[in-house]
């Protein structure tokens, strides 16, 4: 497809430009317009001009708040009154909890009973109701089904949901407003909500931008899925980047396949190196998953023609007592 | 003095409004216009609306770059050609080193021979010439004198210099542009360069703002100096806030005495608590000295009428291998 063709959405449920614009309007009263930071020393390390979109500074410390706020505030009053539900031990849980509190509706969060206490406390701190379950995917799904059946709450999937994808797309939309002449945007790939929203926003607004997804080599299911044209589940992922261990969804996969230029993978050592460099040089906290795109730059995985690169720093939720460079 | 009187500078060498404006113009091509961040949870902890001016995100990770850039770029070509010199093992050393490199002139930095290696490496990384000396104040001053005599370099004092104070004042000037209706601005007090520049900028531009200085109880020389009307040297300071162990200067003291509403002191435990809260909630790195103003908010040291408070986060240079909450 050439750049001047009007792109068609790859799936009737995939958000279009209007959906992303509407999401931006909808979340504006609640979400931060996060800053874009630059660093001469990171530019020197990366050999390009880098523009870091700081979603670690977003509400709840992650881009996930954009999608959650968009979906929660899209519900009709009747739907919303019964609340929302999801299963998650990560940033989506906190994001959905806060978005629900802001709308004044209940959030039911199914969490594995072995979830870190700090994460449970964070979700509870936003006023959500937590339902614990055994730590298997099957138990999570069954428990969620029961919660939905009993409460009538709306299930909000963490990424395979058009409202979530449109919400995540507002991040790249803002980035393009803040830095108008990027040639490349890179984002981490977990379930694909962020990278598919990013790819759609860039395609609709500035199609010359190459969108590249990055994932850890130890969780390269998206790389293999794109290569072979079918969704591989993420099995036994081995990576410090705990936000990127999930599989692609049936909604995110075709969007990524069509609009993401390629997926590259990075080593664990590069992730830790990138994370520490961002902390030390930019003075901001990022979680391992957020370091993955810059790790790709450090590994020289981008083409030389990528000169002005937007990097989405996806989140900053880390345990300050367990930093990776302090492990013996 | 009433607010509508035109304030007189308390010392003919103290910068006036024009000097601060000129400093802002002079450093604009080199310094970051740092963002102002907010956090609902920190507001809830502090019981007020807090606006954090992020000088930890400034070049070299500290507000010190403003003063250093202003002084270095104020020099005539003849003066500058011989370079600049100072003695410092802290952020001023890095700031002066980078400002000199940007102007293309030599920087001679006298550092105690027991300086942390990471700080030596940072100064050297900016291309400065380092001269080691025994770790006493007297050796530092004598070594610096010799360096100045030999090279003809201009000594740039870290705070008792009108160009430094004017440069530091640009931070509050920006903050007032970014958040027009503050009632209070708080800043840490070490040698007094930041708080005196802050107080002058507020006095000149929006005199209704109360400027409050904060220092650790274990380094309360400025508190005692203001109380008794004479400069007490900082002797045996005991605080984690290593940037605040210095004494007031003959130039900063009268400015603070006239324009800073008061100085409050905080406990060490509050400093660590404030530092960790900013890391966890705002996802940014701040050094202990930068946490001192928020510690004062947490301790309830500000008056209730302070509702919209600007907090200058002075810097973010920390050793990631030695965080205070990891000490056994």
Describe the structure.
The structure is a homodimer of 328-residue chains. Chain A is globular. In chain A, 44% of the residues lie in helices and 15% in strands. Chain A has 2 domains: 17-62 and 161-319, Rossmann fold; 64-155, Rossmann fold (3-Layer(aba) Sandwich), CATH 3.40.50. In chain A, helix 3 packs across helix 8 and helix 9 (193-205) crosses helix 11. The longest helix of chain A is centred in the middle third of the chain and has 17 residues, at 162-178. The termini of chain A are far apart. Chain A has helices at residues 17-27, 40-46, 64-74, 77-81, 91-103, 117-125, 137-151, 162-178, 193-205, 221-228, 252-259, 268-282, 288-298; strands at 36-37, 49-54, 84-87, 107-112, 129-133, 154-155, 184-188, 210-216, 262-266, 308-313. Chain A is an alpha/beta fold and 328 residues long. In chain A, the strands form 2 sheets. A 6-stranded mixed beta sheet of chain A has the order 1-2-10-7-8-9, with helices on both faces. A 4-stranded parallel beta sheet of chain A has the order 5-4-3-6, with helices on both faces. The A-B interface holds A 35, 37, 40, 56-57, 59, 61, 276, 279-280, 282-286, 316-317, 320-321, 323, 325-326 and B 35, 37, 40, 56-57, 59, 61, 276, 279-280, 282-286, 316, 320-321, 323, 325-326.
Order of helices and strands of chain A: HEHEHHEHEHEHEHEHEHHEHHE
Number of strands of chain A: 10
The major pleated sheet of chain A works out as:
6 strands, mixed
Residue runs with pLDDT of under 50 for 5 or more positions of chain A: 1-8
Tell me roughly what share of residues is in helical segments of chain A.
40-55%
Mean pLDDT of chain A: 94
In the CATH hierarchy, the third-tier topology of the largest domain in chain A is known as Rossmann fold
CATH architecture type of the largest domain in chain A: 3-Layer(aba) Sandwich
Structural class of chain A: alpha/beta
């Amino acid at each position: 497809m050439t750049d001047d063709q009007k792109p068609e959405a790859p799936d009737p449920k995939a958000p279009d430009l209007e959906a992303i614009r509407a999401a931006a309007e909808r979340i504006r009263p609640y979400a931060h317009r996060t800053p874009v930071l630059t660093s001469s020393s990171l530019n020197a390390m990366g050999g390009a001009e880098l523009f870091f979109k700081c979603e670690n500074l977003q509400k709840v410390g992650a881009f996930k708040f954009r999608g959650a706020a968009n979906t929660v505030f899209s519900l009709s009053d009747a739907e919303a009154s019964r609340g929302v539900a999801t299963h998650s031990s990560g940033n989506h849980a906190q994001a959905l909890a806060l978005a629900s509190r802001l709308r004044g509706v209940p959030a039911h969060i199914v969490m594995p009973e072995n979830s870190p206490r700090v994460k449970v406390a964070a979700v509870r701190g936003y006023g959500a109701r937590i339902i614990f379950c055994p730590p298997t995917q099957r138990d999570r799904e069954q428990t969620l089904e029961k919660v939905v059946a009993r409460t009538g709450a709306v299930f909000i999937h963490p990424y395979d949901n058009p409202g979530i994808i449109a919400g995540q797309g507002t991040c790249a939309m803002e980035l393009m407003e803040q830095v108008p002449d990027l040639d490349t945007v890179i984002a981490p790939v977990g379930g694909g909500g962020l990278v598919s929203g990013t790819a759609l926003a860039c395609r609709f607004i500035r199609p010359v931008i190459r969108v590249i997804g990055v994932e850890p080599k130890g969780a390269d299911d998206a790389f293999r899925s794109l290569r072979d044209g079918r969704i591989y589940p993420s099995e036994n992922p081995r990576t410090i980047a705990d936000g990127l261990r999930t599989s692609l969804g049936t909604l995110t996969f075709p969007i990524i396949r069509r609009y993401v230029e390629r997926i590259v993978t990075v080593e664990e050592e590069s992730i830790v190196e990138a994370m520490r460099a961002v902390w030390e040089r930019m003075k901001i906290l990022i979680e391992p998953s957020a370091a993955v795109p810059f790790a790709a730059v450090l590994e020289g995985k981008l083409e030389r023609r990528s000169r002005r690169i937007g990097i989405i720093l996806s989140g900053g939720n880390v345990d300050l007592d367990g930093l990776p460079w302090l492990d013996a």
